[in-house]
Amino acid sequence: MSETTEAAPDRNILIVDDSAMMRAMIRRVAALADVPIGRVFEAANGAEALAILEREPIAALFTDINMPVMTGTELLRVIEERGAWPDLIRVIVSTDGSQARREEVDHLHVRCYVEKPFRPEVMRDVLCELSADADPR
Amino acid sequence: MTSSVNCRQTPTPAEHYGPLMAALADVAEQSFFACVDPCDAASFEERAAGVDNWLRVSVGFQGAFAGLFSCTLPEPLAAELFDSFLGQADESARNETLVFDLVGEFGNMICGTWLTRTAERRRFALHRPEVRRVPPPVVTTGAEGGQELLCLNDRPLAVGLVFVPWQG
Amino acid sequence: MIGWEKSGAVPVRTGAMGVPPAAERATGGRRLVVGIGELAVSDSPGDVIVTHALGSCIAVCLWDPASQVGGLLHFLLPDSRINGARAAAQPATFADLGIPRLLEAVTARGWRKTRAQVRLIGGAEAVGRAGGGTGTLNIGKRNIVAARGLLWRAGIMVTGEDVGGSQARTVSLAMADGRVRVTSGGAVVNEL
Fold first, then answer.
1. What is chain B's Cα-based Rg?
2. Is CATH 3.30.1330.200 the classification given to domain C2-8+20-191?
3. pLDDT at B145
4. CATH number attached to the domain at A2-128
5. Residues of B with Cβ-Cβ distance to A20 under 8 angstroms
6. pLDDT tens column, C127-162
7. Looking at residue C181, what is its pLDDT?
8. Is B50 or C117 the better-scoring residue by pLDDT?
9. C57 belongs to the catalytic site
10. Domain spans of chain C?
11. Mutate which of A25, A26, A32, A131 to disrupt the C interface (most C C-beta within 10 Å)?
12. Which of A65, B130, C124, C178 is spaced 20 to 30 Å from C111 by Cα?
């Protein structure tokens, strides 16, 4: 599952959510935001996401937590353990914003925690912030 | 009040409907650009009349307390929510799989938002939403009815909440 | 060049519902006053578009830095289905008819949504009704939600808001730089 917008592999993003509609919504925000983005990849769980990470250059990962097969927390743990993607920007997009859950991912280098529901502008702002950091001109 | 619920006690739906309705209103406004209104039984039945196709999303949860959240809505409302969520009006983009997915995510967000606020310090788990077709809901009134009647985009919506004894 | 987008079917009407936006000569440009259920667009850098006494109403302010085209809509209610006669007579009274007309009007003059500044102002609740309870009409909140949703459907995201609360607001949109100034009780309370 991917879509090419322009050749900018250092700007590829990966959206991980078991809801196809949520993935589509985030994809639309990415398309509308005035931010340079490469290819947008999608995965329905952590295991699918890992497979994509292993074969594609990904700059930023947007992951849900509560998913079948492999949860977002498990995915982030594997990423941390392997140490193969030190520059990967990790963003959680979850309906579970509890303090307990936030503490659970605290040491997993999560850059940003977006709670569902969110307005499209919230995700746009996250994308803009990440883009500005990546291209501080 | 809600955050102080003892994890060994089974709470009653009545004490949780307020926070649950607030969560539903926030989900509706932020992600679906729709406003929620209360609805009495007569208004609900009036709006439900003639609507044959209904969907129900059920989300099981466990944590400080365990139970089942459900939300029953007419399919035309599901279609409206689909369009507003994606910000599109292309009827051909809708299919049953995606509409079910959307209704599942709607239920997931309501339940997760409510539990995040209610059990702030406690971990909770949400089961995968189950969406299925159901017959038109039978309207029951009073707290014993176990459902809250609402109106969303001028269409009927019934929310149910059931707690089960803690299985620790 | 100034473009008036009268929202009524009748070109010029009088009375509270149909007064055309007033233009006053200001330094280097015009001061275009938009009433309830009206909209105005401009591509003249010297112009300032103003609307007064926003309560639960919303001002939708658009400005494109590339073309320097902008526009302002002052709508009253979210949904035109509530009053078909008024919707026909003055469609910009309603968000669902007014916002598409505003977008058409500015787009025709070269406004483009990429990098556009999109601001929403207003949506207050009358004192005693604020709080967002489900037992009140909450017109202000409904207007805010409707405007956001209609813009999202149009593929446009909001870049700034000053909404809610209980105070009446006056808004000005400067065509020179797209700055939106919000005043209340005679004092500037926000700049977007």
1. 16
2. yes
3. 54
4. 3.40.50.2300
5. 97-98, 101
6. 654 444 444 578 999 999 999 999 999 999 999 999
7. 97
8. C117
9. yes
10. 2-8+20-191
11. A32
12. C124
